[in-house]
């Protein structure tokens, strides 16, 4: 599964969404904008219909769903619903593709088999001496 995958409850169940490069390229073509532009439109409430529709449909496909099943779900739970209720799910999907899942640790990826190093202490860090003298 792609590192850009995110899963959450949406529509009638729990689904995995991902926008690997093939789906991002298709999203870019369909929306006539790069993924950051689509994300900004969603974030700022100046989205286009295709920003929502394509992000959800392609996210389902990238997450492993068959294209016809993804299209059927989007037609049922996007086209026949108020469009605004799908803005946040679409934004979560594109943000995961661009920046990773919100709960992913910063640093080396799990694929590296290592965790990131703790932050280095600097002279500006609070030391035991300065803490003791402040008491």
- Number of β-strand runs: 2
N-to-C span: 53 Å
Level of helix content?
A: 40-55%
Structural class by sheet pairing and helices: mainly alpha
For the record, the count of structural domains works out to 1
* Beta-strand content bin: 5-15%
Please list the strands of the largest sheet in the order they lie side by side: 1-2
Number of helical regions: 6
What oligomerization state is this entry in? single chain
Could you describe the largest sheet, including whether it forms a barrel? 2 strands, antiparallel
Which regions are unreliable across 5 or more consecutive residues at pLDDT < 50? 112-135
- Summarize model confidence as the mean pLDDT: 82
* Large-scale geometry: globular
**What is the ordering of alpha helices and beta strands?**
EEHHHHHH
What radius of gyration results from the CA coordinates? 20 Å
Structure, described:
By secondary structure, this protein is mainly α. The chain has one domain. It starts with 5 loop residues before the first strand and ends with a helix. 28% of the residues are buried.
Task: Name its key features.
single chain, two-stranded antiparallel sheet, mainly alpha, 135 residues, globular, 6 helices
């Amino acid at each position: 599964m792609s590192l850009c995958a995110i899963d959450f409850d949406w529509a009638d169940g729990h689904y995995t969404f991902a926008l690997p490069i093939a789906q991002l390229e298709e999203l870019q073509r369909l929306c006539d904008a790069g993924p950051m532009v689509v994300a900004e439109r969603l974030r700022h409430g100046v989205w286009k219909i295709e920003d929502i529709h394509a992000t959800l449909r392609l996210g389902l496909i990238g997450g492993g769903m068959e294209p016809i099943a993804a299209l059927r779900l989007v037609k049922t739970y996007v086209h026949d619903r108020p469009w605004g209720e799908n803005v946040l799910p679409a934004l979560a999907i594109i943000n995961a593709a661009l920046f990773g899942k919100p709960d992913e640790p910063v640093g080396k990826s799990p694929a590296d088999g290592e965790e990131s190093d703790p932050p280095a202490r600097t002279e500006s860090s609070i030391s035991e001496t300065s803490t003791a003298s402040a008491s």
